[in-house]
Amino acid sequence: MASKRRKDPLWARIVLIFGAVLLVASGGTLVAAQTLIASATSSITTDSLLDAAGAGGDEGNDISGAVNMLLAGIDARDKDSATTSVLADTIIILHIPETHDQAYLISIPRDWSVQIPPYEKTGFQGGIQKINSSFSVGYDGDGSEQEKRARGMESLANTLNKITGIKFNGAALIDFGGFEKIIHAMGGVDMCVDEQATSIHLGINAEGHLYQGWYDEAADQVRGLPAGYEPYVHKLGCRKMSSTLALDYARIRKSLSDGDYGRQRHQQQLMKAIAKQATSSGVLTDLGKLNGLVQAAGEAFILDTQGTPVVDFIYTLKGVAANDLMLIKTNNGQFRSVTDANGSSAETLDSLSMDMLAAAKDGTLGTFLIENPTFIAKSS
Q1: What is the mean pLDDT of the chain?
Q2: Per the domain annotation, does 262 fall within a domain?
Q3: What pTM, to 2 d.p., does this model score?
């Protein structure tokens, strides 16, 4: 019998910014806000995640203008899996314009075929691969888990920098466990299912009990469900979702009409739902829930602010509210297929998508979107 394997696509999120700035945004006193921020930031794991891709240097990390942050989540596999590499399952650029009153979430397709630059720390010589592999280029090799993850993030950032020219003011890496704790601490999130979707990980029985299975990619089916359980189906409509259901919904791509683009959209929608829930009165007026959220957010991240104190980031971006999050897609949401160097199906970005990334680099993304509104994804 085949050994059980799970593949957990994991998400990078900006909950830290919203979680730590809750009292600031809600008109709390400066002392209370500073206390909350200190609590949120004291347990954050910080590390160097950026090298040449960072916006620091001798001149320092200037966050008074437009800000670009790299957010990434990893596909962490069980250690007994035959596959040892870890891929960047989710890659998002958080762009804040110079006005600091808007936020754009740009999802980068994980199957984008790119030239990954050499990475000296692991001896990688460079080559054409899918961009999610750029994380494994740094992750592979000796070192602690944190050291491997930090190298993976650095390689991913360097790859994006070489392709787009974007220098990142900061970066954050989050794993599945941390993300689950954040949603659980808030008591779930409100999500709208815009297309019926069948889970490839979660089962349910006639009594409504859920069970976590795993997806056998080779056989294209869910494994590990007990007798009487069938794959869970997310029905159309809006509802409060638990952390288990919300995460499951945001992982699905197989049963969606637009595949990975649908998954990207749902991940972005979940980010926005988390931000809204984190700043709702139900969280702000419940000190136990608020403290739980702040603690979960503080423990969930590996963060690099390029030398800028976290508190400075928080106060600089405090004008960005949940409703100011705009969701951005590439290729007009259509998969543009190419065959990569290994003969596998991959994706390329069209010239207009590259222009959009150039606009993020130059701080003119707002103008670009006015002229090209089809790049804006549905927010719910």
Answers
A1: 79
A2: no
A3: 0.77
